[in-house]
Fold these 2 entries.
Entry 1:
Amino acid sequence: DVKVTQSSRYLVKRTGEKVFLECVQDMDHENMFWYRQDPGLGLRLIYFSYDVKMKEKGDIPEGYSVSREKKERFSLILESASTNQTSMYLCASTHRHYGYTFGSGTRLTVV
Amino acid sequence: AQSVTQPDIHITVSEGASLELRCNYSYGATPYLFWYVQSPGQGLQLLLKYFSGDTLVQGIKGFEAEFKRSQSSFNLRKPSVHWSDAAEYFCAVGSNFGNEKLTFGTGTRLTIIP
């Protein structure tokens, strides 16, 4: 089975901190995605990447950046965390014909 | 721009009763449609997908969905729900077999009563 692993299930950070959310997949998938999930809003795409060192903005990239130095790892960076970035963050990877595999999510609270 | 509407925020169903969750989409080309389920504290799990061919697709856990192009709908059904089906359900639309970005609906939370 494909595994997408997010390094933290729960995270509490202070306003203004730089926050790194890590995501690793073990199946050599080309495409990786970061979504945030909020009640009543569903999942919204933050950033995605189709290859190493490539990145594309999603629907809500403001306040976020990403890094993909290796194929298996896709990091989401909150440059200066704010309370409105308190959310559930979901990472996913895909390979042709197999669709998405999601990680279990990181619930981030910014205080 | 593509979009997905799930008009029901919350549905309550008795165990053993039938279920239908609604999903309407807007997409300019041939849509690739998906239903995902999310149990509390978990990531999303794929229930089923539609790419082409037979418009009635079967998924895991006894779920099925029917693609109706004329109505831009992709409703999820199950003939008899179990308590373990309580979860949040998301409909999504995308392209390229779902390998590119997906657009998700806002979700429907399903509660099962004994």
Entry 2:
Amino acid sequence: AQKITQTQPGMFVQEKEAVTLDCTYDTSDPSYGLFWYKQPSSGEMIFLIYQGSYDQQNATEGRYSLNFQKARKSANLVISASQLGDSAMYFCAMREGFAGNQFYFGTGTSLTVIP
Amino acid sequence: DVKVTQSSRYLVKRTGEKVFLECVQDMDHENMFWYRQDPGLGLRLIYFSYDVKMKEKGDIPEGYSVSREKKERFSLILESASTNQTSMYLCASSERGQAFDLNRAINSNQPQHFGDGTRLSIL
């Protein structure tokens, strides 16, 4: 079974609008961390935001926020006020366990911001 | 800031050649990783290392080997390159996951830090 599932291969959003990128995960470990990365066309992977399984509040970092629904095992990324520079691939990832060393990645969502 | 440096952004090699991809990180991270990235498949783990001279197979280790002689350097080796190894290769590093604390739960909150990637073409 896939550890991380991203069901949206491609998304489009109008500039200045908000967009939600979906991510569901599968684990039986009560301790895990969820990460979102952005990959522009230049190829580098940029860490955006982190959510821990024991965190009581949804994570926020500037225009990025994470809609964490633990019972549904979902960790959707919300980008507010989209900008043209947000056009990129977005990957959801999970790190399992208290001392987990391995990361599991989804297949990514390609976001295009339309002017 | 963490810096992960991959030796080449673009590389072209011939079938059957032995290919070395080098990765160096400057943050004293214990863990290092090699992934390949292909359209529609996301990132697939080839090998990772959690200490010097230690290595673990990932999801797709066939046709690859790795070397970690020093903490800061993790090398990926294509023993005999084939056209199906044409791909984008990404190196990453991270701190080791935090140990369990009996008094409170600790999440492993340290992200992976990536290099800029190597686009490898095998002709």
